[in-house]
């Protein structure tokens, strides 16, 4: 008999959750323009919008906050964060930022010139925005399996070596300032990159004088998948795997709000002293002094502690298995999701879930709205809305994956919450034909998924027919 496991922590404080009626949820959804980003958190029962900044901090992190040194320059807290990054990730130089996109902005301004190309293993929204705003074109060189939600390939985040060579041959290595390697790949479904692929990509890039910069936001989750799936790593610690991973890079951007287990903060790290000097000059313009970069001393203390906690093998095993707990339930009931199950979220395949809707009807946006309406569960669209428009043609970018992301915050919810989510999704799947598509009634020019507003395409003006679920607590 398979023995059941429990969380590797115990609960010391609780936060009551809001439970609205179906009618109240309908009103909240309409006020938000059917965009889950615009729903007030106090109107949400189970919040799976993002794992960014939504982690529960440990008792040691809360204690560390009280040790925060708020000196404007050269604080103790900065020194502790700097040492933690060096210990765990191995980089020589660190530039603190208010969050990951602050690091993306600085990197893009330092490295990109107009007309450059930045290859990567599938785009991420803010990363690509900064690259394009600085004059580069993003080029997706991820393997084809990443665009197939049904493929069980274990490392769907891998770079396609042939695609990378073809790009270098086409545009020339001098027009490629760096390769952006995400570990894991968010928009592919939280899919990892193998150590073998990292090693080969780094070798190729070094031969051509191209730097490799990691988007390291969920690097600990990637390390766990290497330990679990790649030959030769099953007996290695997460800490050892991480060190080897980063040895195949020249630097990284980090949103500390994910695998550093804090609510705010990030950093840009590198080994190049000349790049570090330039970054120190630029961080003052956009973030703050090089010894705080947009974070308070208490934030840096909490992040330093979180960096060490995240590499605990028991923590990361439970984190991955809780995501898998939800995903396995959906697979067992026939719900179409991205497979294999990723590290930070379960991704519903909205195209397969709602086959009666065209992609231009925003099926993932409609499904995310329907899930909130049914049970107060907030999720996120990751499809045609997130992909934005082509800068040349003005038409919608049409990604092959049209997904709804159910993102699991770290150390926040129990598996009972995952059961509620699974039950709601199954209920929606049984009446999926009643869910209508959307039209966009307000479209921001950049990163439109944050603030766009929608209206249903149904004749009645309602998202779906029938009555919703009345949420209750046993």
From TrEMBL:
<protein>
    <recommendedName>
        <fullName>Tyrosine phenol-lyase</fullName>
        <ecNumber>4.1.99.2</ecNumber>
    </recommendedName>
</protein>
<dbReference type="InterPro" id="IPR011166">
    <property type="entry name" value="Beta-eliminating_lyase"/>
</dbReference>
<dbReference type="InterPro" id="IPR015424">
    <property type="entry name" value="PyrdxlP-dep_Trfase"/>
</dbReference>
<dbReference type="InterPro" id="IPR015421">
    <property type="entry name" value="PyrdxlP-dep_Trfase_major"/>
</dbReference>
<dbReference type="GO" id="GO:0050371">
    <property type="term" value="F:tyrosine phenol-lyase activity"/>
</dbReference>
<dbReference type="Pfam" id="PF01212">
    <property type="entry name" value="Beta_elim_lyase"/>
</dbReference>
<keyword id="KW-0456">Lyase</keyword>
<dbReference type="InterPro" id="IPR015422">
    <property type="entry name" value="PyrdxlP-dep_Trfase_small"/>
</dbReference>
<dbReference type="InterPro" id="IPR001597">
    <property type="entry name" value="ArAA_b-elim_lyase/Thr_aldolase"/>
</dbReference>
<dbReference type="GO" id="GO:0006570">
    <property type="term" value="P:tyrosine metabolic process"/>
</dbReference>
<keyword id="KW-0663">Pyridoxal phosphate</keyword>
<dbReference type="InterPro" id="IPR013441">
    <property type="entry name" value="Tyr_phenol_ly"/>
</dbReference>
<feature type="modified residue" description="N6-(pyridoxal phosphate)lysine">
    <location>
        <position position="258"/>
    </location>
</feature>
<comment type="subunit">
    <text>Homotetramer.</text>
</comment>
<feature type="domain" description="Aromatic amino acid beta-eliminating lyase/threonine aldolase">
    <location>
        <begin position="47"/>
        <end position="423"/>
    </location>
</feature>
<comment type="similarity">
    <text>Belongs to the beta-eliminating lyase family.</text>
</comment>
<dbReference type="InterPro" id="IPR018176">
    <property type="entry name" value="Tryptophanase_CS"/>
</dbReference>
């Amino acid at each position: 008999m398979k023995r059941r496991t429990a969380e590797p922590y115990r609960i010391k404080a609780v936060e009551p959750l809001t439970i609205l009626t179906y009618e109240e949820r309908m009103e909240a959804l309409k006020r938000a323009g059917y965009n889950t980003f615009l729903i007030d958190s106090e109107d949400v029962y189970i919040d799976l919008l993002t794992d960014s900044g939504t982690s529960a901090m440990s008792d040691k992190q809360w204690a560390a906050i009280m040790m925060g040194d708020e000196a404007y320059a050269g604080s103790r807290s900065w020194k502790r964060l700097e040492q933690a990054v060096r210990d765990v990730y191995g980089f020589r130089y660190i530039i603190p930022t208010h969050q990951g996109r602050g690091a993306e902005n600085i990197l893009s301004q330092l490295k990109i010139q107009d007309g450059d190309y930045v290859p990567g293993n599938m785009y991420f929204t803010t990363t690509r925005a900064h690259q394009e705003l600085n004059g580069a074109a993003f080029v997706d060189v991820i393997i084809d399996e990443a665009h197939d939600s049904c493929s069980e390939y274990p490392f769907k985040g891998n770079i396609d070596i042939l695609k990378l060579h073809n790009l270098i041959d086409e545009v020339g290595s001098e027009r490629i300032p760096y390769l952006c390697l995400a570990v894991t790949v968010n928009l592919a479904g939280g899919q990892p990159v193998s150590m073998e692929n990292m090693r080969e990509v780094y070798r190729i890039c070094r031969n051509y004088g191209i730097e490799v910069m990691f988007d390291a936001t969920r690097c600990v989750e990637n390390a766990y998948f290497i330990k679990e799936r790649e030959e030769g790593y099953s007996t290695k610690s997460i800490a050892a795997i991480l060190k080897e991973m980063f040895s195949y890079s020249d630097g990284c951007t980090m949103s500390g709000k994910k695998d550093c287990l804090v609510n705010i903060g990030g950093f840009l790290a590198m080994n190049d002293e000349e790049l570090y000097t330039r970054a120190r000059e630029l961080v003052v313009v956009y973030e703050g002094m090089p010894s705080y970069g947009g974070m308070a001393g208490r934030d840096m203390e909490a992040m330093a502690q979180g960096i060490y906690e995240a590499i605990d093998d028991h923590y990361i095993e439970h984190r991955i298995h809780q995501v898998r707990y939800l995903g396995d339930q959906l697979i067992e009931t026939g719900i179409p999701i991205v497979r294999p199950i990723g590290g930070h979220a379960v991704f519903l395949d909205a195209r397969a879930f709602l086959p009666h809707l065209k992609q231009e009807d925003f099926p993932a946006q409609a499904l995310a709205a329907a899930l909130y309406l049914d049970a107060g569960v907030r999720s996120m669209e990751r499809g045609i809305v997130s992909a934005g428009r082509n800068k040349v043609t003005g038409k919608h970018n049409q990604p092959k994956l049209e997904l709804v992301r159910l993102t699991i915050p770290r150390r926040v919810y129990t598996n009972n919450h995952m059961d509620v989510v699974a039950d709601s999704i199954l209920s929606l799947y049984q009446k999926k034909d009643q869910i209508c598509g959307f039209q966009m009634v307000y479209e921001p020019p950049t990163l439109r998924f944050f603030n766009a507003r929608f209206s249903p395409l149904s004749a009645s003006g309602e998202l779906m027919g029938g009555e919703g679920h009345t949420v209750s607590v046993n």
